[in-house]
Specification:
Shape: elongated
CATH architecture of the largest domain: Up-down Bundle
CATH superfamily of the largest domain: Fumarase/aspartase (Central domain)
Length: 482
């Protein structure tokens, strides 16, 4: 019975094109791995196994990708199966589908593709961490005013600020690595939903396809979507954090703030205003990050309250959205990494801003508590009164003596130069040696930890990709030996 034209137009054609783009490679690898396993277990004879191998070898991925969907088959799986039948006959071709279903094939394809997506995003996170760590290393002494509630708050350093973002990206990497581990389990062998009575070896196909092992419960292997949601949740969290960082960087690029200058290759001019130097790379990154977050959220919404079982809501129509979320997350983080790698900071302007608006005054209250034994609240009150009553034509030290006498009954005296030094942003930063604080010695320690964490994650990524490459080589060797 032919499919209805509207069904072909609006569903089957779209799904066929998506599958060619996303899943043709994984599908063929699954065919080969399953064939090796069937032959190894004696479920398919040696002669049939070689005929099936020859049929699979004769399939050109390039040719399949050029195929225009004509409605004569349901999907990519059946199209490839037809090619196998044409090559070796229906009796032999039919043996390849022993002990499996489109259900477990689909779930295996999805996981194979998704694990690659996770690794790509992790690579982008590492690229951004490398760029920000290099910038932080070069700016341990670059002081600028940190903001709270969008207002100047206290002096800190560019290194201190960026280390906060780097630590967030480190946690993103932890989430992505955990998501990879959850994803990298093999559903093949779960068949339709209850497994099979054939003596299959799920561990062998797992090894040949680069999985860490088979999934557990066969029902859950087909029904679950939580592995995808975990990965997309990691993407969503990363996107939110990246978007907040980009928002700050864009503010720093404004002429009014002018802390940050992007390399020429990441800005654009105006068709009418010749003076413009627009930091559009970061604007694009913000938009793409928002897209990734929206797409990840849409996947969670699409599968919410669907049945726990084999259902199209988690399959053909959903997978392109999953792929787009990962693709845009990877694009965004790689773009920010590239744009920031050559960025420059106006250190003099940042320090000048850090000398304004009394933002180091907290250190006066702290010093009064440490050196004079005052309750911090008294020190805070004295500092607040000093701000309110200071006049440019009168030494600040005299005003401090007056307000401290009013608050405590005893005047507190400082030499004017000593008081000015105490209130300098350089002193403010230097004395904040708290673990995680902005003092250059402490940010140096933190940067060493950041580099060690980066090296560990970079090694994990390289080793993981090497394991996938090695698995593919084992698959090819076993196929050749049929």
């Amino acid at each position: 019975m032919p499919f209805a034209p509207d069904y072909v137009t609006h569903v089957l054609n779209e799904n066929f094109e998506d599958a060619k783009t996303l899943f043709l490679g994984p599908l063929l690898s699954i065919h080969y791995a399953h064939l090796v396993m069937l032959a190894d277990r004696g479920i398919v004879g040696a002669g049939d196994a070689r005929a099936l191998r020859a049929a699979l070898d004769g399939i050109s991925e390039a040719d399949v990708r050029r195929v225009v969907y004509d409605g004569s088959c349901e999907d990519l799986f059946f199209y490839v199966e037809r090619l196998v039948v044409e090559a070796c006959g229906v009796d032999v071709a039919g043996r390849l589908h022993t002990a499996r279903s489109r259900n477990d094939i689909d779930m295996t394809m999805y996981r194979m593709r998704q694990r690659g997506f996770v690794l790509d995003v992790l690579a982008g996170v590492l690229a951004l961490r490398r760029a920000l760590t290099n910038i932080a290393e070069a700016n341990r002494d670059t002081i600028f005013p940190a903001h709270t509630h969008t207002q100047p708050a206290q002096p800190t350093t560019v290194a201190h600020y960026l280390l906060g973002a780097i630590e967030q990206l480190e946690r993103d990497a932890t989430r992505l690595r955990a998501a990879y581990v959850t994803t990298n389990r093999n559903p093949l062998g779960a068949c339709a939903i209850t497994g099979t009575g054939f003596p299959i070896d799920r561990h062998l196909t797992s090894d040949l396809l680069g999985f860490d092992g088979p999934t557990g419960n066969t029902y859950g292997s087909i029904a679950t979507i939580d592995y995808t949601l975990e990965s997309l949740s990691a993407i969503a969290v990363m996107a939110v954090g990246l978007g907040r960082l980009v928002q700050d960087l864009l503010l720093w690029c404004t002429m009014e703030v002018a802390y940050l200058r992007l390399p020429d290759g990441f800005v654009q001019g105006s068709s009418i205003m010749p003076q413009k130097r627009n930091p559009v790379a970061l604007e694009h990154a913000r938009a793409i990050t928002s897209k990734a977050f929206g797409q990840a959220s849409a996947v969670l919404m699409a599968v919410h309250n669907t049945p726990f079982g084999d259902i199209v809501d988690t399959e053909d129509d959903l997978q392109p959205l999953v792929a787009l979320a990962f693709r845009d997350a990877s694009r965004a983080v790689q773009l920010v990494a590239a744009a920031m790698a050559g960025a420059e900071f106006d250190r003099a302007r940042m320090l000048e801003r850090a000398r304004l608006n009394w933002i180091s005054i907290t250190e006066l209250a702290d010093t009064l508590a440490r050196e004079h034994g005052l309750p911090f609240r008294h020190g805070h009150q004295i500092a607040a009164q000093l701000i309110a009553r200071h006049r440019p034509d009168r030494p600040m030290s005299d005003t401090l003596a007056d307000v401290s006498r009013e608050v405590t009954g005893t005047p507190i005296h400082y030499e004017e130069a000593a008081l000015q030094a105490l209130l300098s942003p350089e002193h403010f930063v230097a004395v904040r040696t708290t673990h995680g604080g902005p003092a250059p010695a402490e940010t140096g320690r933190a940067l060493a930890e950041a580099r060690a964490a980066f090296a560990a994650d970079e090694a994990w990524l390289a080793e993981t990709r090497e394991r996938l490459t090695a698995a593919d080589a084992r698959l090819r060797e076993r196929v050749a030996g049929l």
